[in-house]
Each structure stands twice: as structure tokens, then as C-alpha cells.
Write a structure and sequence with these properties.
The complex is a heterotrimer of chains A (230), B (252) and C (288). With 230 residues, chain A is mostly helical. Chain A contains 7 helices and no strands. Chain A has one domain: Up-down Bundle (Methane Monooxygenase Hydroxylase, Chain G, domain 1). Chain A is 87% helix and 0% strand. In chain A, helix 4 runs parallel beside helix 6. Chain B starts with a strand and ends in a 5-residue tail after the last helix. Chain B has a 6-stranded mixed sheet with strand order 6-7-8-3-9-10, sandwiched between helices. Chain B has 10 helices and 10 strands. By secondary structure, chain B is an alpha/beta fold. In chain B, a hairpin with a 2-residue loop joins strand 4 and strand 5. Chain C has 288 residues and is mostly helical. Helix content of chain C is 76%, strand content 0%. Chain C has 2 domains: 47 residues; 230 residues, MetI-like fold. Chain C is globular. In chain C, helix 4 crosses helix 6 and helix 10 runs antiparallel to helix 11. The chains are: A mainly alpha (230), B alpha/beta (252), C mainly alpha (288). Chains in contact: A-B, B-C. The interface between B and C is medium-sized, with 33 and 26 residues.
Chain lengths: 230, 252, 288
């Protein structure tokens, strides 16, 4: 087998990305746990994870740039490195979302406990599940698993819309709970973002493995349908 | 203007060596088509079948058909006629050593009986301009010999010489492989400009070069054409695993 | 380890000196006789060189004076004829061997014949020309001499032309063929032209060789004491004249023979230099 050093570099890149992915998953889990038990020390852990994630984002991008410049990757190697760069960015945003959630938890700590009509833990688990599955599809290069993740996004979107409705209702009708409701809404939004990033990761995996670009297919199809009607 | 090339069931032998097997492809007019593949895969032999240059080797044999435009070059024409319509630039620049720059460019015409002085002057100037060499040699056309130029200039001289005969197709067998990066870039830019007037077929070892200049690329392996598709597809998502192994360097 | 390396290095240096010395010595050994001969001829012959030598025919036996004017002119005529016969045939054969007949049985036969011809003693050549030209004609003639010398030129010209043509890089031929130039035209206008310096050298070598040949002329041109440029008559030649005079019992003739030898060598050198000069200005203009 030729180009052994290059193969090895690709393996190393994948490994480093997976380490970063582990940190991102861990950050989300911790943020959800912090919400569940309202423990500020866990929030600190989330912050530390997020800093480590940011550092790794820079290192991975640098490594990918070097490979592009020095090795002239083609075809599947090129698609792989491109996907790594994108997944890199998405994982960093996942870290940011985790930090946002932990910030909200800190804010809520100062407020009274309220019983809100949203099932944040369920939404969080779904989002975390999507992240886990998309990373699994990356580890195994499994485009089918990745496509499965794409379909899970609808559920999270639906939950987010429902949360918006019910929480705005709370803010209107029970204004003494407005602060808690707002924080909860922002947490839902962060979770919806996490789900979107997981979707992006899955789309990048499909591009890497199959060479097809499946992004934005719904909105593009909708716009095309609209323009055809007109 | 260039013409398209249609190759059907082309087989070639050197003696008992079955160098090319069942080649079928359509090379589009006014485009550059690159042929890539490992050493010994038959791509140079294939290109030489397009202007019947392989016949200069007495043990060479060909079956199948090659149509350039409307003409079946094996059934309907003689090698000498074909080579006036299909020009060739070789791997190592080979200007005629005993001739001046002017005579080199005019050689294809003069040796075929063309003698009108004024027209020759015009054609030589136009060809040298088309091969981006005019500015560098216009003062020394008849004083300097072809062999006294630098490598990159010599190759552009050979291109001018090929263009002077006004071919429809230009075959280039690794034209830049003996040149430094700057000369290579000049040749590649040239190919880009020439595409609109001629059909260009370029054999290259350098995949990045194929990617830079050619719209379509064919991958040859062991005498067969494995894949022929748009350059974009070949280099981002080839259909055949053998193609992918070659271009990612995973051979063996 | 270090000392062994140093020892090897000094042995290598010594060998280097010895080899260089041997090469220089060989060169001196080869060049010395050449120079010695020339100087000797100069000494022995220059005294007899005067205007008469170049303008008068030989004096009758017993009289002093006279020259070798007729021999000089005769040699020129004979060499002119032999060149006209030998050079075109030789170059033509060389072109065939290198360009058209490569590998064929005929080509091998031709090459073999040329090599054999090269080795045939010059006197045998003379005898052959005698049987082929003199006998049917019934008399000696310059024509027979020219034919004999011409045939002798052919193998040298042929083989050197072939060598020079084979040395033309394949790339140059391909370039011509790739332009749609017919093969014969490519051979003549490109390959031969590229090889011409070498081919001309081959011709000059052949020329210099036959310029000094005596034996073939013995039974063909025969020699002539008087002015003659008639191709059907015997004709004088410088080497022939030198031979006859040298073997004669007359001192006068001996002196003329020395002068003749000197003039012969000088003329050959001049002829070769002239050809070199002319061709370097013409064909090779601009190249290398």
C-alpha cells in the first residue's frame, strides 16, 4: 500500500476529531445534568469542556489545512477532509450550545423553582441521541445511519415549536414566572440548535461516504416548487 | 475549428503484445481531454493511434476504427494526410536542430511544398503568437536556431510548429513533464486558450495538471479504458474503485 | 579503518597519475611519427619546390628541371571523378541502410559487402578495374583510374554516412513525421541535413585516403609524362609519379619525388581544411 504516511495522517485526523466529539457529547450531557439537578459545580465542568473544545477546533482545522496543502488529496480523501473541517465547526457550536444551556441554568438558580409545561429532559435526550448517532455514523462511515439522524430532526423541531407556544402562553398568563419561562425557552432553542448541528454532521458524513450533497434539500425543493407554481 | 473524435473497438498490438484492448470513447470537439494512468497502461500508444504515428514502428498493428470528424482515419486516408490534420507535441521538446526559429515553425508548410513568402511570414507570426512565444523571439526569428532556446521556449516552439499547419486536433504527449513549474504554467494557460480553436488531447502523469486544463478525463489501466467522465467527477467522486485507487495514490 | 581508507585513496591517486601518464605517452607516440614525417618531407622536398614544379611537365630523361604540373592536374581529375562516383553511391547506400532497410537481409548483405570491400587490398581493386574497364576498352585510361578510386571510396562513405544517420535522434524524425511530412522527404530534408556534418567528414576521410593511393592506378590510369586531361587516355597522378620517380636511378627524379610527396600531403590538408571551412559557414549556421 502506497502513501502510508498520508493514510496515517488521515487516521490521526479522524481520531482527534473523535476526541473532540467526545468532549462535545460530554459537554451536552453535563449541561442536561446541570439542568436536572441544578448543580452549579457541574456548570463549571461544562465551561471547562467548552474551552477544551475551542482549542481542539483550531488544532484540527490546522491539521486539515496542512493535509490539503501538502498531500493534494483527491476524491474520497478530499471529501473526507472537507467533512472533517465542517464537522469540526459543528462540534464547536455544540460546545457553545452546551455552554449556553449551562449559563441559563446559572440564571435559573437565582429564581424560584417553577413547574413549566415543557419536557426539557426528553428534548435534551433526543438531541443528545442525535449527536451520538451522527458521530457513530462518522466512526463507521455508515451513510444509512446518518440518514436516520436526518429524520429525527423533525421531532425536535416539533417539540421546540410546542415549547415556544406553551412558554409564551405562560409568560402572558403567569407573568411572575416569565423569567423562568424565558430561560426555559432559551434552553429549548439551544437544544434545537444542537439537533441541527447533529443533522449537519450526518449530512457531512453522507457527503464524505457517498459524494452526494443532501443539505437543504427540503427548503430548496420547496423554493423550486413555489417558483414552478408562479 | 476543432472536430470530435470517435473511437470504436480500438485494439492495438506491438508484435504479440496486446497493448490496447477494446477502447471505445468519444472525445468532444473544442475541449481538452486528459488521459491519465500508470506507466505502461497504453495511453501514449492510444494517442499515437489517433494520428497513426504508431505505424512508424514496423511491428505495430491496429484494428477497430477512429473517426476524426467524418473521416475514418484508417479506412479512408493515408497517414501523411491524417498527420496534417492531427498535430502532435512530444514529451521532450524536439525542434529541428539545424533550422532557425522561423524555419522550424514553417517546416511543416515548407516541407509540404508551400512557398509563398508573404503568407509564410504571416503564418509564422500567427503561430508564434498563438503559442505565446512571439514576444520573446520576434527579433531573432532567422538568426537564432531552434535548439538555442530554453526548454520551455523550445516546447512552445514545437507547439507553434504544430499549429502552423492548421490542424483540427492537437495531441500532446506529456508536454510539460520535462519542464519547470513556470514553463508548465505557461503551457497550461496556452492549452486553455487553444481549446476554443482546436480539439486537444493531452496525456499526462500529473493529475493536478489534468484537473487544471481538461473538461473530460479518461483513466487507462493495463491497456483498457476504465473510466471516462467529466474531470470534476473523476477527481471528486469516481465511479470505479480502480480509478479511485489510482488518483488517491493507493496503488498496490 | 581510517588508515585503510587513506591507503586506498593514495593508491587511487597513484593509479590516476599512471593512467594519465600512459595516455599522454601514447598520444606523443602517435603524433611524433606524423610530425617527424612532415618535417622530414619538408627538409627533403622544400629545396626542389619552385615555380617550375607547378607549371612544367617532367623533363626527358637526362635533362634537369621540369615539374609535376601534369601529375597535380591529373590527380585532381582522378579525384574529381572518384568523388562523383563514390560519394553519391556511398551516401545513397548509407541512407538506405540507415533509413529504409534497417534489419532487412538485403541491408545486412550490403553492409557485409561494404566491410569486405573496405578490406580488399588496393592493388586488387586496381586489377578489378583493369579487368572491368581497361580490357574491354583495350587501353589504359583516366576513366578506369577514376572508377577504381571511386569504388574504393564507397565503403568508407557508406559506413560513416550510416553511422551518422543512425545518430540523428529519433525525436527529430518523429517531429518531421508528426507534421505530415512523407518519409522520403523527412529523410532527405531533415535527417540527412541534421547528419550532414558527420557525413561530410566521412566523405573527406574517404577522399584523403584515395588521394594518396598508388597501387590501383598502376594498371588503370597508368601515368603519363605529358599533359593530358583526356578521360580516355592514361593520365598522370601525383602518388604514381612519386612512386615512379622514387624507384628510378636518377637523383634529379629523387628530388622531385620528395617535393611531390610534400606537395601531396599539403594539398590533401588544404582540401580538407577548405571543405571544413565552407561547410561550417553554410549548413551549420546557427546550430550549436
Amino acid at each position: 500500500m502506497t502513501r502510508i504516511r498520508f493514510q496515517q495522517s488521515l487516521e490521526d485526523l479522524k481520531e482527534n476529531l473523535l476526541v473532540m466529539a467526545g468532549l462535545a457529547e460530554q459537554a451536552i450531557q453535563r449541561a442536561i445534568e446541570a439542568y436536572r439537578v441544578r448543580d452549579l459545580s457541574i456548570c463549571d465542568l461544562v465551561n471547562r469542556s467548552e474551552i477544551a473544545i475551542n482549542r481542539m477546533e483550531r488544532d484540527i482545522d490546522q491539521a486539515a489545512l496542512d493535509l490539503l496543502a501538502m498531500e493534494q488529496p483527491m476524491a474520497i480523501d478530499l471529501r473526507f477532509i472537507l467533512s472533517v473541517i465542517k464537522i469540526n465547526a459543528d462540534l464547536e457550536r455544540v460546545g457553545d450550545s452546551a455552554k449556553s444551556i449551562s449559563d441559563r441554568v446559572r440564571s435559573m438558580e437565582l429564581l424560584a423553582v417553577a413547574d413549566l409545561p415543557v419536557d426539557i429532559p426528553r428534548m435534551a435526550n433526543l438531541a443528545a441521541d442525535m449527536v451520538r448517532k451522527s458521530l457513530q455514523s462518522f466512526i463507521e462511515g455508515d451513510a444509512e445511519l446518518a440518514r436516520g439522524v436526518l429524520t429525527m430532526d423533525d421531532a425536535v423541531d416539533a417539540m421546540n415549536r410546542a415549547a415556544y407556544k406553551s412558554l409564551t402562553k405562560v409568560m402572558e398568563e403567569q407573568s411572575h414566572l416569565a423569567a423562568q419561562a424565558l430561560n426555559a425557552l432559551m434552553i429549548c432553542r439551544s437544544l434545537e440548535r444542537v439537533a441541527d448541528h447533529a443533522t449537519n454532521i450526518a449530512e457531512d458524513v453522507i457527503f464524505w461516504v457517498q459524494g452526494t450533497d443532501v443539505r437543504h434539500h427540503k427548503s430548496i425543493a420547496k423554493a423550486e416548487a413555489k417558483s414552478q407554481v408562479v | 475549428m476543432g472536430v470530435g473524435i470517435e473511437v470504436s473497438n480500438l485494439n492495438a498490438w506491438y508484435g504479440t503484445n496486446h497493448t490496447l484492448q477494446d477502447i471505445n470513447l468519444n472525445i468532444p470537439a473544442n475541449h481538452a481531454t486528459a488521459l491519465i494512468g500508470p506507466s505502461g497502461c497504453g495511453k501514449s500508444t492510444f494517442v499515437r493511434c489517433l494520428n497513426r504515428m504508431h505505424e512508424t514502428n514496423p511491428i505495430a498493428r491496429v484494428t477497430g476504427s477512429v473517426r476524426i470528424g467524418d473521416l475514418d482515419i484508417y479506412a479512408d486516408a493515408k497517414p501523411v494526410e491524417i498527420r496534417r490534420r492531427v498535430g502532435m507535441v512530444f514529451q521532450r521538446p524536439n525542434p529541428f536542430p539545424t533550422m532557425s526559429i522561423y524555419d522550424n515553425v514553417a517546416a511543416g508548410l515548407k516541407l509540404n511544398g508551400f512557398s509563398n513568402r508573404r503568407e509564410l511570414d504571416e503564418i509564422v507570426e500567427k503561430s508564434l503568437k498563438n503559442s505565446a512565444l512571439w514576444d520573446e523571439v520576434k527579433d531573432d526569428l532567422k538568426k537564432k536556431s531552434g535548439a538555442s532556446l530554453s526548454g520551455g521556449q523550445q516546447q512552445r516552439l514545437c507547439i507553434a510548429r504544430a499549429l502552423a499547419v492548421d490542424p483540427e486536433v492537437l495531441l500532446m504527449d506529456e508536454p510539460a513533464s520535462a519542464l519547470d513549474p513556470v514553463s508548465t504554467s505557461k503551457i497550461e494557460d496556452l492549452i486553455f486558450q487553444l481549446k476554443s480553436q482546436y480539439t486537444i488531447v493531452i496525456v499526462t502523469h500529473n493529475m493536478q495538471q489534468a484537473a487544471r486544463v481538461a473538461e473530460k478525463t479518461g483513466f487507462f489501466l493495463n491497456g483498457r479504458m476504465v473510466e471516462f467522465d467529466s474531470t470534476h467527477k473523476i477527481f471528486t467522486n469516481p465511479s470505479d474503485k480502480r480509478t479511485e485507487d489510482y488518483i488517491t495514490g493507493r496503488f498496490g | 579503518m581510517g588508515t585503510e581508507f587513506k591507503m586506498r585513496a593514495s593508491i587511487r591517486a597513484l593509479t590516476d597519475y599512471l593512467a594519465t601518464g600512459a595516455a599522454v605517452l601514447s598520444t606523443i607516440l602517435v603524433v611524433t611519427p606524423l610530425i617527424a614525417i612532415f618535417v622530414y618531407l619538408l627538409i627533403r622536398g622544400i629545396g626542389s619546390l619552385n615555380l617550375d614544379f607547378f607549371t612544367k611537365v617532367p623533363a626527358p630523361v637526362g635533362e634537369t628541371g621540369g615539374g609535376m604540373a601534369n601529375a597535380i592536374v591529373g590527380s585532381a581529375v582522378l579525384l574529381g571523378m572518384s568523388s562523383i562516383i563514390g560519394i553519391p553511391i556511398g551516401i545513397g547506400a548509407g541512407i538506405y541502410l540507415a533509413e529504409f532497410g534497417r534489419g532487412t537481409r538485403i541491408a545486412n548483405a550490403i553492409r557485409f559487402t561494404a566491410d569486405v570491400l573496405n578490406g580488399v587490398p588496393s592493388i586488387v581493386m586496381g586489377l578489378a578495374a583493369f579487368s572491368l574497364v581497361v580490357v574491354p576498352q583495350g587501353h589504359f585510361s583516366a576513366l578506369a583510374g577514376g572508377i577504381a578510386l571511386g569504388i574504393m571510396m564507397v565503403p568508407t562513405v557508406c559506413r560513416s554516412s550510416e553511422e551518422m544517420l543512425l545518430m540523428v535522434p529519433h525525436a527529430v524524425r518523429e517531429a518531421a513525421l508528426g507534421l505530415g511530412v512523407p518519409n522520403w522527404r523527412s529523410v532527405l530534408s531533415i535527417t540527412v541535413r541534421t547528419a550532414s556534418p558527420g557525413i561530410i567528414t566521412g566523405c573527406m576521410l574517404a577522399f584523403a585516403r584515395v588521394a594518396g593511393e598508388t597501387a590501383p592506378l598502376l594498371f588503370t590510369a597508368l601515368g603519363n609524362q605529358f599533359w593530358s586531361t583526356n578521360l580516355n587516355q592514361p593520365i598522370a597522378a601525383l602518388p604514381l609519379q612519386i612512386y615512379v620517380y622514387a624507384l628510378s636511378p636518377y637523383d634529379d627524379w629523387h628530388r622531385l619525388a620528395w617535393a611531390g610527396a610534400l606537395v601531396l600531403i599539403v594539398l590533401i590538408v588544404l582540401a580538407v581544411s577548405l571543405v571544413r571551412y565552407v561547410t561550417s559557414r553554410g549548413v551549420l549556421k546557427g546550430a550549436s
